[in-house]
Amino acid sequence: MPNPTFRFTHYDLKEQPAGAIIEVTLSAVNNVRLMTATNFQRFKETLDFKYIGGVAKKSPIRLTIPEAAHWHLIVDMEGHHGLADSSVRMIASPARQQRQQKAS
């Protein structure tokens, strides 16, 4: 069971290709952390972990997947007043971007 002392929402993004773009919508300022499966495990164990993202002061925000891997997204309230309502959607994948460029 996750161990962090603050509340968070977890999204399992499964395997994603490098260059895929995700869009995160928030109802309030919160932390948005994109991390690999290994780092998510470290997060749950309250060990040091690496992530992409940080404090999201505006919504929506977009993050680009840097490498092909199994990815997790955490929205958390650490340092903020409460846990924001959130949603995540894939807005682009490298294959889709290439098709759009060829069509123009």
From TrEMBL:
It holds the Pfam family DUF1883. InterPro entries: DUF1883, DUF1883-like_sf. It comes from the Bacteria. Residues 6-94 form the DUF1883 domain. This is DUF1883 domain-containing protein. It comes from Ciceribacter ferrooxidans. The lineage of its organism: Bacteria, Pseudomonadati, Pseudomonadota, Alphaproteobacteria, Hyphomicrobiales.
